[in-house]
Amino acid sequence: MHLETYNTKSMNRFKTIFRTCVLVMMTMGLVGCSQSPAGASQARDAHALYLQAMEALEVDSMVQARHLLHAAQDAALREADYHTRYLAQWQLAQAAMQSDPVTALGMAREALATYESHPDDERNHIILLDAVGTCAAQLAFDGQGSYDEALAYTRRAHRLALEASDTLGTELVCQTHTSLANILWAMERYPEALQQARLAEACATPTLLVGVQQVLARCLESCDSLSQAEALYRSMNPGSDVQLAYIIESNLARLAVLRRDVEQALESLDETFDHAEDLYFRAMHEKDQYYQSLLQRERDNERLRYASALHRRTLLGIIVLVLILTLTGTYIIHTRTRMAAQRRIADAWRRKHEVDERIHQARLHRQDSILQQQQMEAQQEMLRQRDATIVFLQDFILQRCDVIRKLDSSSERHIVLSPHEWREVERTLDLIDGGRFAYLRERYPDLREADIHLCILTRLRLSNRAIGNIYAISISAVKHRKLKLKKEIFGQLDPNLSLEQVLDEMAPET
Description:
Among the domains are: 2-38 and 307-377; 402-505, no CATH class. By secondary structure, it is mainly alpha-helical. The protein has helices at 2-33, 46-58, 62-79, 82-95, 101-117, 122-141, 147-163, 165-168, 171-186, 190-202, 206-222, 226-235, 242-258, 262-334, 339-399, 402-409, 419-432, 436-443, 449-459, 464-471, 475-489, 499-505.
């Protein structure tokens, strides 16, 4: 009787412990499965959504950015975060500016209304007013609105900028003067636009000066002051900004056509095409860098997803292992009389689980190795494609260079190249060779033009006989010139290195 009572109580305790363990396992499993990928943001408040939208805009994910901005706008209304709300509304207006100017103007007005109902920063107030005026002017320029609304908003912004110039500086004053000049120019009120542009130039900061000068030059041109406009364009210094140089040269060409200065127009057009070509190659380089960074980002995200999945599997394995050990220990305590047999069963179960775990880990390791191998193959294929593209571009440019075809087809007769042809060959090689000869001229100022010409012919892989035909000298004299250039100018005394190898090693510094 006592034994039955003891067994019943023991069984009830066992069932209670079992239910508790099952509940704990389910809770931990739900927690583990609900873990988001490593590195993902958990914050879903308005400011966090706005920052995520800005990150999406940086990688050109416009659809995702609009979705996040709308979510940030709604969340900001719930949280009474009016600063984030009008920022999100303004970003939505900017996103719709090109495709739907009517919607953009409406969103800009909502952003301004949100700010004015809960003002926080006078600088943002001026910027919003100026931006709404710009949207209204764009709509009026498309024939769907009135310039009067644009002028009203922009003049309000200008008045506030003047009042706050002591604390905020003259940058906003300059921007509002420039906006007024653009709107008045669009309304064909050219004298007033010119006056506003001159006021903007008077208070322009160094960062805004170039843009203001472009507006001023356009107003001068509209007021028939072509000489002043041309002088202003020529005073601009584009520096390394190829796009600005293109704008300057194209406007100079247009002014020359208006003044019927054909020779000056042709020269400006040539320079414009050169800048356009530089702009094209720079855009291609930036596009390649963008896709490289995008590919790297995708690989990082894939690695993070894989690490998260592995984390969840490991957590579930640990939960299962803890449950098994707990049940095994409880069962051993409950059945003292059959401890030996139950211990053997538990050990066998534990060994089986460890073997399964090792097999599982080995499978995961093998999958990781396969993934790494696929990534390496993809990277190698990408490098091969890039090299093939470079070779194709080099062949494409070299086949179209008249001077190079002339050299290749005339290796057995005397050739005379004009200075223009030498410059064309050097410019072509610089385009496909990363500016190698510009680098040589900068690093070795003692190089003569004859030395540069010899380096060009050597870089073109012409034979000593072909070079001798060009200079009307013997092959031994060509070899002597190469040896002298290698030792005296480049300082290379190794007899085993040829001039071709020395030039190959002199890559421009990046």
